[in-house]
Design brief:
The protein is an alpha+beta fold. It has 12 helices and 17 strands. The structure holds 2',3'- cyclic AMP. The site of 2',3'- cyclic AMP has 15 residues, from β5, β10 and α4. May be involved in plant defense signaling.
Length: about 450
């Protein structure tokens, strides 16, 4: 099995032993799939299972499709004006795909254009994402509209230049706030809000009529506006979900180490439940304030899911592993609810994972609890009293309980009875042993 990484840590690998290696610039290599693992979506003209027109195969296809009327087409010259000639101090960040600049599209860029702050991603022609990912992004973000999906304002494709123009999300990525900033301002209630918004975005994508699998959920792909509203960004790996009596879509395995569902990594069979697993990883990272993969941690903690999932329903050990930066901000009941949700999302058995619509329901109740909690706090503070949000967590002999506080026996393996006994050790150790410490993208 070939496993390769880009500088971003994205992976793309095949189950084939006949894989052909193709180098794509610095630190990145791709194993091309053999034919038995080809992407199985139909192409050409007809509507796709999501109800959207099929992803355009090329630029001509894209431009002749009437489905993108809300997306502006910019010239490269306009992009230069919007970014002041791609000024280095306008750079917001850089990934394996290329550089992201901030910019403004206004009257000076195009006559009559209402001044709009934007983020402009210039895809690196040498990079991992070729036209295929660029087109997928235009296709999905250009046509799907939801408050929890980042808005694609336009694109530019001239000669070798491929740019995407998005709404500007002033607080940047969740990854920056959770892992890169010195003073983390992400309180418990902000994290719940962000998780809820990400869940709503995914639930929308998975919605029956327009089933789309996002495939690349991770903190770097969740962007925040000035009020910590969260939106999913980067649809380069998104795919139409299965349709009719199909149970899955067969794809080459792509995604990010530490986030990809075990059955997807092992079989290439993609379902919306793979996104649910990725969501579980995200919840875990937010609860613990730790990255999904980190080789600088002690060996047994390299893979966050492997190490922490068994502790999620252990009501004595759980509080000890929660991000200390949230100390005193949550109740035991709320913590157990989120931990139990993460536990279920991370089930080895895809069918044991909840639907995203259910995840939204559970997180909504937390938001309500949070509001009530804040009211209580405000009242107490106004009366000069202080309160601790921790509740004593009664424990049983196994030290485990579920969301509703009911006791639950934990099987010896740490796995729920409904879970298939897939041995993920093999795939996890393959991922860990091949990985570059800085890279997490498959
Ligand atoms: O964490 P950040 O500040 O937020 O740095 C990364 C960088 O670009 C590379 O991805 C930022 N970024 C990406 N898209 C946007 C956007 N639409 N608005 C604001 N910042 C963005 C991201």
């Amino acid at each position: 099995m070939g496993v390769c990484f880009s500088a971003q840590g994205q992976f793309q690998f095949s189950q084939s032993q006949n894989s052909q290696k193709k180098t794509l610039g610095k630190n990145s290599a791709v194993y091309q799939m053999n034919t038995d693992c080809k992407e199985s979506s139909a192409v050409g003209g007809k509507p796709s299972p999501s109800g959207l027109p099929l992803p355009p195969k090329n630029i001509k296809d894209l431009q002749s499709n009437p489905g993108y009327e809300n997306v502006d087409i910019f010239t490269y010259e306009e992009m230069k004006l919007a970014t002041k000639q791609f000024r280095p101090d306008y750079i917001l960040g850089e990934g394996g795909f290329g550089v992201v600049y901030k910019g403004v599209v206004d009257e000076n860029v195009r006559a009559g254009y209402k001044s709009t702050k934007v983020a402009i991603k210039e895809l690196n022609p040498e990079g991992f994402q070729g036209d295929r990912e660029w087109l997928a992004e235009v296709n999905y973000l250009g046509q799907l509209s939801h408050p929890n999906l980042v808005k694609l304002i336009g694109y530019c494709c001239e000669d070798d230049h491929r740019l995407l123009v998005y709404e500007y999300m002033s607080l940047g990525s969740l990854e920056k706030h959770l892992f890169r900033r010195v003073g983390c301002t992400l309180t418990w209630s902000k994290r719940v809000k962000i998780a809820l918004h990400a869940a709503k975005g995914l639930a929308f994508l998975h919605g029956a009529e327009r089933s789309v699998i996002y495939r690349d959920l991770k903190t770097a792909n969740i962007l925040l506006d000035e009020c910590y509203n969260a939106k999913l960004a980067d649809f380069g790996l998104a795919k139409d979900g299965p349709s009719g009596d199909q149970t899955h879509v067969s794809t080459r395995v792509m995604g990010t180490y530490g986030y990809a569902a075990p059955e997807y990594v092992m079989t290439g069979h993609l379902t919306s439940r793979s996104d649910v697993y990725g969501f579980g990883v995200l919840l875990l990272e937010m609860l613990l304030g730790k990255r999904a993969m980190d080789k600088s941690r002690p060996c047994r903690e390299h893979n966050l899911v492997e190490w922490a999932r068994p502790l999620l329903n252990h009501n004595k050990k759980l509080p000890r592993i929660i991000d200390p930066r949230m100390d005193g901000q949550y109740t035991t009941k709320a913590l157990m609810k989120v931990a139990d949700l993460a536990y279920q999302c991370l089930s080895q058995n895809p069918k044991g994972r909840p639907l995203m619509s259910h995840v939204v329901e559970v997180l909504e109740t937390l938001k309500e609890d949070g509001n009530a909690q804040e009211e209580v706090m405000a009242n107490l503070h106004s009366r000069g009293k202080s309160v601790t949000l921790y509740e004593a967590a009664p424990s049983d002999s196994q030290g485990t309980r579920n969301v509703d506080g009911q006791r639950r026996r934990r099987p010896e393996s740490g796995r729920s009875k409904s879970e298939a006994s897939i041995d993920t050790d093999q795939y996890v150790s393959a991922l860990v042993s091949d990985s570059d410490p800085e890279s997490t993208k498959i």
